[in-house]
Amino acid sequence: ARLTRIPSRRFFTAEQWALLEAICARLMPQPDRGDHPIVIVPWIDDKLHADRRDGTRHGNLPAPREAWRRGLHGIDRESELRFGRSFVACSPSEQDAILQAVQRGDGQDQAWQGMSAQRFFNTLVGEVVSHYYAHPAAWSEIGFGGPASPRGYARLDANQRDPWEAEER
Length: 169
Hints:
By secondary structure, this protein is mostly helical. 47% of the residues lie in helices and 0% in strands. The longest helix is centred in the middle third of the chain and has 20 residues, at 64-83.
């Protein structure tokens, strides 16, 4: 499904989608992939549309949907305050400066009131990285052969390996 059924936009506005794509390009650059980057934004959008949660909620963030809307708005507002243009219109070095400020919790805009910019940044990075490494192409990059779910594990005790697992050397 990660290769053939990419979700369409249902949660983010077109502007939020473009903003998040620009943020992902800074957090997880993929210059070696050319015209075939691993898509990340559709999966975050799909998760938020379905309101799927991870089971953890930090007290200094609102509920996930609200946190994402406010966090993306905050990043774009930081761009306007610091450079006079949207995040998408900023240069890569300006985008990095904005993201670094948010990472440090140095957000200057009102959008961050009642919400930790730093905690949102950590949530943002966690989602981007997890969706990137959920893709089979990323598995190949790190030498992960994929989940065991197609055949399952039969030997679950310590120091036992299934017939298809390589022996340690």
